[in-house]
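Support request, please re-run this one:
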Amino acid sequence: MSELSRRKLIGASAAVTGAVAMPSVARAQTLRWRMVTSWPKRLPGPGMSAERIAERIATLSGGRMQIAVHAAGEIVPALETLDAVSSGVAELAHTASFFWQGKQPASAFFTTVPFGLTPAEHTGWIDAGGGQALWDELYAPFGVKPFMAGNTGVCMGGWFRNEIADLAALKGMKIRSLGLGGEVYRRLGAVPLTTSPGEIITGLQSGLVDGAEFVGPGSDIALGLYRLASNYYAPGFNKPNGTGECIIALRTWETLDSLQKAIVTHACAAEAAYALNEMERLNVEALAALTERHGVKIRIFPAAMIETARGHAKDVMGEIAAKNEIARRIVESYSGFRARAGRWADVSVKAVLDARGGL
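Re-run finished. Output below.
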């Protein structure tokens, strides 16, 4: 073989090898994303959900999908995470859908609704009752795709400096309360405040806030709310469920291959299940610590107040349904599922708890 022929053969071989290798190199390139969150750094509950999602995605992808998690305020404020993902500041966010009810009132249904679905019922609606498709449709104009990605479980009604003896006690009371629960508190005579989680304690210290709801004992104890408001009220009529969401920019989502999409989907689904189980344990332990070591008093809202709140909640849902066509379909789907789930709950969970009694 001539030297010229040999050089041509070597050159052709190199070209073929390069053509084969280049896609492999491309596939092996590491994706590096930023996740902004609405939570203080590593806050028990939602803050840890964000961390675990990033860890799962990295593990499942063999390290080829890396996510840097940023606490509220590090890149954007807690209540601006949706805008950050929509505008390209970050690829993902971990947050809660009821923060966006000012942009789209029906968004609150995907976190919680006063007197609404319990955690198990809520996940049933999203995963198996048509909720996810409606959620995707609702968020498409924002340029993001939503996933359930954590759950703080059944929430408490809130922390208050003073006892609530009757409905009149709420008149003019400044309460940190988000979502539709805040609107119900407003109609009960209180003044709902939109305060980020990291600023609740500052509000109580300054006197700007008279009462505050966040989630449940497992997360609330970490914020130290019991130091400034020792009356802890139940039931959490305002937030019977606490779904956290992970939102990913649609332009990012659409660049992923099927395996990468499966990784993100699985990581969020795994966290939705794990977080609920973890919060059950944390809530049990934290409630004992709050009442036995920190002098917290568990109170029950007056029955007349709850009855009045239930009427307001029904009115609020009706008003949201009248906002637009997608809101109407979400309210109808949610309400229908709640009615069917309630009939089952009466003869299952409620009946078991009643039978269990004081055991």
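The chain is about 50% helix and 15% strand. Residues 158 and 190 are 13 Å apart (CA to CA).
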